[in-house]
Amino acid sequence: MTDHPALGSARRLLSRWDAPGPDQEGLRRQFLDHLDRQPDGWSRSCPGRHLTASTMIIAPSGDRVLLTLHRKIGRWLQTGGHIEADDRDLPSAALREAMEESGLPVIDLRDVLLLSRHEVVCGPFRPTFHLDVQFLAVADPIQPAVVSDESDAVEWFPVDRLPDIDDSVRRLVAAARAAL
Predict the structure, then answer these.
(1) Which of 12, 22, 96, 163 has the smallest number of Cβ neighbours within 10 A?
(2) What is the pTM (predicted TM-score) of this model?
(3) Rounded to an integer, what distance in angstroms lies between the CA atom of residue 40 and that of residue 23?
(4) What angle do CA 100, 117, 112 make, to 5 degrees?
(5) Are the beta carbons of 67 and 157 closer than 8 angstroms?
């Protein structure tokens, strides 16, 4: 597979990103090592692990976040997913996924917040891991969210009344609030 623009973009972005702590620095190095070993490491066709791009969408005031109830997983998550062949880079993949899964017409994509490595059921290889680059985005909660084919619901939640979410999403919400 020839180098995809997402590969170079991911390398540059991760090389420049200032990880907020030792755990995140370890993940940053793991992601870069993966991309150095796997020229298709950005693609879902890469066996065993591949990059994904997700977005924590927060209101400008920092008091609300948008979450999607993922149809396959059955959990409230940030928007996100696989990098597609026509995505020019990680930020454009994150923005495309955010717009597709939220239905919001205007989203201000900002910087990378966190990295996450988590096991998923994805393709024929077991185990498979998503190496998720998690972005911050700001959007006006006045905009109505629209449920996509990948979700059972999409809602704005007050940060002090979040639905049942796992610790990784809680950390992402906290990081988004701190970054505003």
Answers:
(1) 22
(2) 0.94
(3) 25
(4) 55
(5) yes
Beta strand residue intervals within 36-161, DSSP E? 49-58, 64-70, 76-77, 79-82, 108-120, 128-138, 151-158
DSSP 180: -
In 3D space, the residue among 1, 25, 6 whose CA is nearest the CA of residue 15 turns out to be: 25
Q: Which of 101, 83, 103 is nearest to 93 (CA)?
A: 83
**Beta partners for 83?**
none
pLDDT for position 124: 65
- Estimate the crossing angle of helix 5-16 against helix 22-37, to 10 degrees: 150
Tell me what the mean pLDDT of segment 17-22 comes to: 97
**For 48-105, what is each residue's pLDDT tens digit?**
899 999 999 999 999 999 999 998 889 999 999 999 989 999 999 999 999 999 999 9
